[in-house]
Amino acid sequence: MASRILLAIAAAFCAALCSCSSTSNSSNLASAKVYRNGQVDNAKYYKVKTTAYSHVEADSLKYGRGNAAGGTLQYGSSVRSAAADWSVFPVGTVFKIEGEPYFYHVDDYGSALVGTKTIDLYRPGMSGIKDWGAREVKIQVVKWGSYSRSMQILSDRTRHAHVRAMIEGIRRKI
């Protein structure tokens, strides 16, 4: 009996401290918050701002269809590329947007994303960018990426201020 009461008190205490949930209930959604140890809220669902980008934009032309992880930007029927601040959503993170059938794979980053919790969704053309616009969406993280892999990729790109900022952000978490 005493152990049940103790468990109930502990559960109530934990519920009061936690600001997020692993359910899709919108009242329990949390903004993405990353802790020093790299844990991201312990939740599966986040409300984030999303925008769209394309390899045909003026500032992306020099990269072509290449992504920052060394592969090719994807826009398939099931898997699509996404860019993010790798100190928030590390390379390799896989997520779904509520209401969409696609999986998004974080394999790119952009200087404008650093210091934000915004995710940029890859679109193959300018019309896709305009159609998407900027939206706040609910995402479900299916698999977290790797901070160590992110650091490995970023380590030889430190001449750029946004890369140094991501590296510093990752170091604070690991």
Brief overview:
By secondary structure, the protein is an alpha/beta fold. The protein has helices at residues 2-17, 126-132, 147-154, 161-173, and strands spanning 45-53, 79-83, 94-97, 103-108, 119-122, 135-143. Strands 1-5-2-4-3-6 form a six-stranded mixed beta barrel.
Please outline the helices and strands:
Blueprint: H1 2-17, E1 45-53, E2 79-83, E3 94-97, E4 103-108, E5 119-122, H2 126-132, E6 135-143, H3 147-154, H4 161-173
Parallel strand pairs: 1-5, 2-4
Antiparallel strand pairs: 1-6, 2-5, 3-4, 3-6
Explain this structure to me?
The protein has 174 residues and is of the alpha/beta class. It has one domain (43-173): RlpA-like domain (Barwin-like endoglucanases, Beta Barrel). The protein is built from four helices and six strands; from the N terminus they run H-E-E-E-E-E-H-E-H-H. It has helices at residues 2-17, 126-132, 147-154, 161-173, and strands at residues 45-53, 79-83, 94-97, 103-108, 119-122, 135-143. It has a six-stranded mixed beta barrel with strand order 1-5-2-4-3-6. Strand 3 and strand 4 (103-108) form a beta hairpin. Helix 3 packs antiparallel against helix 4. The longest helix is centred in the N-terminal third of the chain and has 16 residues, at 2-17. The radius of gyration is 18 Å and the shape is globular. Residues 1-30 have low confidence and may be disordered.
